[in-house]
User: Which sequence fits this backbone?
């Protein structure tokens, strides 16, 4: 999905727009596992040791879904890194089949090789002094947040997570969050009304007002992004949002994923290069 202008215009780059970007690499990685997850998503595990070693929370990869003897689909697909294993040299992706590109991606079988470029983009900026971090994800957007829990698993920082979806089969990340020792995990759905913004606001404020998080990270929903901005103001917390966009290159060459927000004569920050993670500015007075 692509975030509306209202969200894009309320964000600023975490680092200077013209600062140095992470240096990507590429692998012709082997597909190690590829299987359905519930009834809506696919799980993909790829051998990509350099990317696994370099990737930081919130970064992504571009996957070329055309095989060597095929001419199409021409453009690679951006995918959040769901989890990585430095020792095994693997990265994991969870994605939904929504069009020709992801439909082609779903046909790859274990043993086949795929061109992978990454890690790409500006990831989340974790504050080592934060005692509590709240992760709020919707559907496949949760995949941009899970490596935060992975990196905080052996630290004093408590992770609290919201995993939202249309129904139980659309909720991603709950078991992974718990496996990494998350303090609290809320799995909420449209089907039972628990994902409703008013209901979620009431739940989070009732549970967290007494000891709020110092950082809030979100991805996957405009409604939840606005709620996180509101909660950030309430708790004086740092709010960061990972934006999603259609991308042709993923490395800033095509300039097709601009946020739409200009700073003076400069070009709008690019979601692939200056993001996908941006700092959500305060909603006070907005």
Assistant:
């Amino acid at each position: 999905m692509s975030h509306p202008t209202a969200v894009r215009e309320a964000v600023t780059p975490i680092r200077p727009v013209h600062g140095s970007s992470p240096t990507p690499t590429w692998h012709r990685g082997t597909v190690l596992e590829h299987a359905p997850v519930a009834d809506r998503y696919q799980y993909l595990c790829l051998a990509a040791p350099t990317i696994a070693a370099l990737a930081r929370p919130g970064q992504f990869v571009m996957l070329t879904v055309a095989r060597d003897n095929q001419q199409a689909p021409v453009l690679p697909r951006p995918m959040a890194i769901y989890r990585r294993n430095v020792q095994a040299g693997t990265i994991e992706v969870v994605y939904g089949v929504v069009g020709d590109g992801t439909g082609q991606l779903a046909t790859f079988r274990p043993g086949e090789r795929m061109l992978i470029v990454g890690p790409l983009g500006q990831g989340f900026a974790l504050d080592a002094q934060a005692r509590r971090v709240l992760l709020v994800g919707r559907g496949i957007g949760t995949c941009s947040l899970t490596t935060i829990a992975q990196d905080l698993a052996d630290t004093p920082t408590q992770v609290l997570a919201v995993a939202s979806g249309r129904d139980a089969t659309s909720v991603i990340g709950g078991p992974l969050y718990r496996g990494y020792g998350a303090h609290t995990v809320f799995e909420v759905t449209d089907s039972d009304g628990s994902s409703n913004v008013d209901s979620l606001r009431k739940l989070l404020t009732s549970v967290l007002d007494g000891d709020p998080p110092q950082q809030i990270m979100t991805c996957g929903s405009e409604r939840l992004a606005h709620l996180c901005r509101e909660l950030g103001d309430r708790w004086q917390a740092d709010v960061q949002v990972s934006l999603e966009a259609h991308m042709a290159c993923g490395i800033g060459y095509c300039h097709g994923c601009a946020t739409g927000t200009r700073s003076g004569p400069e070009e709008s920050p690019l979601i692939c290069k200056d993001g996908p993670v941006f700092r959500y500015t305060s909603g006070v007075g907005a």
Observations:
- The mean pLDDT is 86.
- The chain has two domains: 5-16+123-280, 25-120.
- The helical segments are 5-8, 49-54, 100-105, 146-152, 174-179, 197-208, 222-235.
